[in-house]
């Protein structure tokens, strides 16, 4: 029995050592810090249980179980942080529930109840720590397959803890950790599996989150939050390839902000950056879900509209131009307009994104030359692509 507890102690400590070695060059984040702390607290708790029957019961029962409750709270909270679901309200609930759980267990101990009652209480209390993170991982439709799997595995842990409480009601203290028998062996195996599930699961979910962040950094523009030039071009080329198979129209819009340099010179670059961010948000809200919207560089932006003919694309371009012209950004000391160049073609295997850009760029120049704050269309491209 002591060997098992020692193994659990070193299992948690080695987990911390290995993760710290792996992440030593990474900035520490909230989830990792909470997980580290949970492993240390759980290691201390299992270390205390080694001295059961040799140290005072208050030390090896009350204090040890209190540390186990704290460790469970910290570990499950770290999973919620990874899911971006650990709000201030949830944090306060966790602190309150952990405090109540510890006070309740201490009260039960001093009331002189049997070990069976403590087993029932501890099993149900621990399961409630796990229940909400498991529910979040299962119910979140945006969650990954890994998160769903972790949610189901943790649900099994919750159910097993409930079964332990029920067995304790009917069979008494034979389900205790210190009662030799088949159930003791099953409990020790379960403890190992729960430790492996928590440790491995956190590492994998943390790595998955890091991969998602890296993809976002590589794919999106830092300032505006929309697709960067490289990702816009990749997605647009793939989209055109799919439209060519279906012989559908594709429209390409290229636009920039009128007199943007003057905005920077007059109000400063911080206002110029704010203009780009607010404009990107406004345009994104106006576009349909299938539209591909990206920043080409500076104040130049591009939109690819799949399965959109001339009439519909003209309506969209005019709507964007008009919306920006009449919108008043309350946090900005100015209003501004955009000029749009566009082209529409029937997508074929020979349709090139670079060609669409060139014709839209020419149309954008025409819109600027004609006085700005207007939409211009390249008709030459239609003739070339369909001729």
UniProtKB/TrEMBL annotation:
Q: Which PROSITE patterns match?
A: GGDEF
Gene3D superfamilies, per database record: 3.30.70.270
Where the record annotates domain GGDEF, the positions are 248-380
| Record bears the keyword ATP-binding | no
- Top-rank taxon: Bacteria
Pfam families in the cross-refs? GGDEF
Q: Does the keyword Membrane apply?
A: yes
- EC number(s) stated in the UniProt entry for this protein: 2.7.7.65
Keyword set, alphabetical order: Membrane, Nucleotidyltransferase, Transferase, Transmembrane, Transmembrane helix
Molecular function GO labels:
diguanylate cyclase activity
Membrane-spanning intervals of the chain: 6-22, 34-52, 58-82, 94-113, 119-138, 150-171, 183-205
Matching SMART domains, A to Z? GGDEF (SM00267)
Q: State the protein's name.
A: GGDEF domain-containing protein
Species source reads: Paenibacillus nicotianae
Supply the source organism's classification.
Answer: Bacteria, Bacillati, Bacillota, Bacilli, Bacillales
